[in-house]
Design brief:
The chain is mainly α. The protein has a domain of 26 residues. The chain is 56% helix and 0% strand. It is flat, with a radius of gyration of 21 Å. The relative contact order is 0.07.
Length: 62
């Protein structure tokens, strides 16, 4: 018991996120993520050796 208020608040927040449109500054987000081209992927810390290990383990390419 006692969860009614917390659940109601979570539902209110979820409803606001679902139905209210918020302006998203995509240029700012792109700068924050550090990507140079709009369609590209963000740089990762993985090395090529990690990818090779995955391919060896599964027998398939990603």
């Amino acid at each position: 018991m006692g969860r009614g208020r917390a659940k109601a608040k979570q539902q209110k927040v979820a409803r606001e996120l679902k139905y209210n449109t918020h302006f998203t500054d995509l240029d700012s987000l792109q700068r924050e993520l550090g990507t140079s081209d709009p369609g590209g992927r963000a740089p990762t810390q993985e090395s090529d050796a990690d990818e090779d290990d995955y391919e060896d383990w599964t027998g398939t390419e990603r």
